[in-house]
Design brief:
This is Paraquat-inducible protein A. By secondary structure, this protein is α+β, with helices and mostly antiparallel strands. The chain has 2 domains: about 30 residues, no CATH class; about 160 residues, no CATH class. Helix content is about 55%, strand content about 15%. The longest helix has 30 residues. Bound molecules: zinc ion.
């Protein structure tokens, strides 16, 4: 007899072996560990890290005013908010679009790496780090909301036009891929005493 819990709703089952089955409470497929969880999450994290680069160096917004195009990256946007003395908005954008995504990606990368390489770090710390990443995840889309909101407000005027730039697409993709990387990760792996490669 073995005990196995549903990753989705946490219901615990008593079974003869670890053969996958469907959870009768939430219909989630119950497996001992999510297949290739670590490899896929790590690959997605690296992918999101690469997307962070175009999100920072390419224009986030293209503002057309009287036929003249003006492009600005996230950093340039923050600087212009600082110039207008809007410190709060500048702070929010910096934390949400620059700091949180990279901290999150490095934290995930660190957790995944620590499961492969021998690092002197307690499992409880790893779980805590993972919980923090999950908690701050939903706030990193703020920047996309700002662009979308401004575009919808200003679009009414024909002389003045705001569009999302290349960085907006990369940024949105990066945020979504990071969410997948975090969700696809089976935290139970952290507690495995002897990892037999999933
Ligand atoms: Zn379930």
């Amino acid at each position: 007899m073995v005990l196995i819990s549903c990753k989705n709703c946490k219901k615990v089952y008593e079974k003869d072996d670890y053969t996958p089955f469907k959870c009768d409470r939430c219909n989630h497929k119950v497996r001992r560990r999510v297949e290739n969880s670590l490899q896929i999450s790590l690959a997605l994290t690296i992918c999101a890290m690469l997307l962070y680069i175009p999100a920072m160096i390419y224009p986030m917004m293209v503002v057309t005013q009287l036929g003249v195009n003006q492009e600005s990256t996230i950093i340039e946007g923050i600087i212009s908010f600082l110039e207008y003395k809007s410190y709060f908005i500048a702070g929010v954008i910096f934390v949400a679009s620059v700091a949180i995504p990279i901290v999150k990606l490095f934290a995930l990368f660190f957790i995944f790496l620590s499961l492969r390489v021998n690092v002197k770090i307690e499992n409880k710390t790893k779980i805590l780090l993972y919980k923090c990443i999950e908690a701050i995840g939903k706030w990193s889309m703020i920047d996309i909301y700002v662009v979308a909101l401004m575009a919808s407000i200003v679009q009414l005027d024909e002389l003045f036009n705001i569009k999302g730039g290349v960085a907006a697409t990369s940024f949105a993709l990066m945020v979504i891929i990071t969410i997948f990387a975090a969700n696809r990760f089976d935290t139970r792996i952290i507690w495995d005493e002897q990892r037999d490669d999933e």
